[in-house]
Amino acid sequence: MTKAKDPGTGYEAARDELVGIVAKLEAGGISLEESVALWERGEELAKVCTDLLDSARQAVAEAESPAATD
Amino acid sequence: MALETSAESPAAVRTVSRLLSDWIGRLGGIWVDGQVAEFRRRPGARNLYLTLRDPDVDMSITVVAGVAVIGAVEPPLAEGQRIIVFGKPEFWTGRGTLSLRAKEIRAVGLGELLAQLARLRELLTAEGLFAADRKKPLPFLPRRVGLICGRNSAAMHDVLVNARERWPSVQFVVREVAVQGVQAVSGVSEALAELDALTDIDVIVIARGGGSVEDLLPFSNETLVRAVAACATPVVSAIGHEQDAPLIDFVADLRASTPTDAAKRIVPSLAEQAALVSSLRTRAHRVVVGQLDRESQRVTDLRRRSRTVVLNAISSRESEIGHLSARVRTLSPAATLERGYAIVTNAAGVIVRTPDDADSALDVRVSGGRFTATRTSS
Asked: Cβ separation of B302 and A18 shorter than 8 Å?
């Protein structure tokens, strides 16, 4: 099992890799084992992306909160 | 012609006075242009005295003239009036005082003054003092504002009140000076120099209310105009005038029509800026949130698609296996055995197809299992 990407690599890099994985899956012609492996990798990347998006939303909410505008 | 003196052989007062009187008398008759700073009309006196002042700087001399000379001036002499005097400098030995003994005095008429002004304007234009590229831009928000205005004037009030209304925390440094008359040029010039020297004053306003052409003459004075041109801090002129603009309007970095107008142009509007910031924040918020929404949607979509591909791969393989198993089953002997057939093999392990293949020891395989059998007859 490959390690999840560290947050320092950036949102766009994770998302672009996920896009690549889906393209490969949809192109077909790959073994079942490889499909499952790719899908698992995609899920890891999706989690990284979702976590980064959630952090970003959190940061925006904090910056705009009444406490931050003093 | 030097006078030789020493501590041991000093000169007498009369000697000094006579010599001075001599030297000064040699200057002869001259025409002098100046402004009447002080004029005392003493009834019955044969000689009248007036102070003639340089309009630009704080220097003056006493002019003495006979009643007839004074009387010939049209319009009658008054303080503040510009005059030209033809006279001889005199040193009066009786008291050791210097004065200009006037033979003729003429008032410099308004027309003449305006003509001088027009010539000065041409001169300064030719020098490039009024050029647009000389004008310095005003700061967006000055740290402090210098204000030169008349004592307790409406102009001062207008500038302060209107600026504070627009940007409440604006800081002013005010210099109240004479804004007309003989002290105006030096008063304004000194205040200008003082305010220009203060580093945190980012703009200077010179303001006064409307007045007659004569009243506004100081603001067309060459010394004052050049001082404004040389000023390092941006200068706003807010001199109320009906007709011709005073020359300061041309040399200033910004010309305001009134003191109130100046107040509105030296500071930004707090309300406007707050509204601008608020709308920018809203727009930024919208952009960021929109981007986050789009990306979330995209990630969800990608996950769904990859899941679909994998599940399809699995289920297509499942149905493929199902088909293959069914075919294997139909092809295998198990179905035939279930129908009641038996496979008989002889001792050699060969499947019995004819009676000759069957020897005595036989192995019988049926659907439910196998057993041995013995051949009894042919």
From this structure: yes
Q: Are residues B149 and B217 in the same domain?
A: yes
User: What is chain B's mean pLDDT, rounded?
Assistant: 91
CA distance B293 to chain A (A): 9
**Domain match, B102 and B155 both:** no
- Whether residues B201 and B138 fall in one domain: yes
Task: Give the residue from B277, B283, B302 with the most A CB atoms within 10 Å of its CB, the best one to mutate.
Answer: B302
Instruction: Give the pLDDT band of residue A1 (cuts 50, 70, 90).
Output: very low
Residue found under tokens 């809203």: B282
User: What is the tens place of the pLDDT at every residue in B204-214?
Assistant: 999 999 888 88
Q: State the pLDDT at residue A9.
A: 61
Size of interface A-B (CB pairs under 8 A): 60
- Whether the CB of B275 is below 8 Å from some CB of chain A: the reply is no
In the block, tokens 């009030």 appear at B157
Same domain flag for B84 and B188: no
CA distance B16 to B239: 51
- ipTM for the predicted complex: 0.77
Residue B74 DSSP class? S
Please report residues of B whose CB lies closer than 8 A to that of A56.
288, 292
Residue of B277, B299, B321 to mutate for A, most A C-beta atoms under 10 A: B299
Quote the pLDDT of residue B45: 85
Identify whether the C-beta of residue B68 lies closer than 8 Å to the C-beta of residue B55: no
Cα A50 to Cα A56: distance, rounded to the nearest angstrom: 10
